Amino acid sequence: MSATIRLTAATAVAAAVLSALATSPAAAVAAPALRMTPVSGHISSHHLVGGIRNSTSSNWAGYAATGTTFTSVSASWVQPAVSCTSSTTYSSFWIGIDGDGSNSVEQTGTEADCSSGRAVYSSWYEMYPAYPVNYSNAVSAGDHFTSTITRSGTSYTLTLTDTTKGWTKTTKKTQSGLSNASAEVIAEAPSSSSGVLPLSNFGTANFTNATANGQAIGNYSPDKINMASGSTTKATTSALSGGENFSVTFNHS
């Protein structure tokens, strides 16, 4: 996927959706424009440090575990506060199964975007390549989230909880033919049909209790992914602490 941003009609639609979402979160459900997509520009053979593979991607930053079949993934995070200028920018924070080396992702998480200088926060789930579906529940910067995805055969249960506001959304989906070959905890620059969109300045996103198949994600020698476009580093991922805690820091849109 190209990292070059072109102001196409699809990008304009995405901006319009954000504007509507600022006053009515449910509005984005009718005509979703953003996509949380499989890892793009991923270089899995970059280098190995202390049992952790270090890689780059044009749209992902975080950790991805591979090497087995996954039945669950979970993590907690604090919804970052975005610093907005007059530009329209986007950022997303989520857990998922698949996406690293496959063309499907089963995922749920939160959004922190800037629409013409205004911060817009929301939550969603997505069974990519289907479009994401936004939840109507209010989301604010600083909210504490916990999330779990579990799989039994071809059945997926995606749960997202805002422990600060006290709401939980549970979505159950059935889909066959998926590889279930990766589990990840990710900060992403979402995409539209025009490519990867400009990344919001989210400061630092802190993820805790990141597990896969009930174990610390660090037990899988996961891929540590930094987000970069050419020579520009867009977001950097910290080392794991305790095998399951890490942060992602914004560097550049």
In short:
With 253 residues, the protein is mainly beta. 8% of the residues lie in helices and 47% in strands. It has a 17-stranded mixed beta sheet that branches. Strands 13-14 form a two-stranded antiparallel ribbon.
Summarize the biggest pleated sheet: 17 strands, mixed
Poorly predicted runs: 1-32, 43-49
User: What do we call the CATH homologous superfamily?
Assistant: Peptidase G1
Q: Which second-level CATH architecture applies?
A: Sandwich
Helix content: under 10%
Gap from first CA to last CA = 16 Å
Strand content: over 45%
- Average pLDDT, rounded to a whole number, is 85
What does the radius of gyration come to?
A: 16 Å
Total number of helices: 2
Overall shape: it is globular
**Counted beta strands:** 19
Q: Structural class, from secondary structure content?
A: mainly beta
Q: Which CATH first-tier class would you pick?
A: Mainly Beta
The total tally of domains equals 1
SSE order, one letter for each helix or strand: HHEEEEEEEEEEEEEEEEEEE
User: Which fold name corresponds to the CATH topology?
Assistant: Jelly Rolls
Describe this protein's structure:
There is one protein chain. With 253 residues, the protein is mainly β. The protein has a single domain (56-250), classed as Sandwich (Jelly Rolls). It is 8% helix and 47% strand. The chain is built from two helices and 19 strands. It has a 17-stranded mixed beta sheet that branches. A hairpin with a 4-residue loop joins strand 7 and strand 8 (133-135). The longest helix is centred in the first third of the chain and has 15 residues, at 9-23.
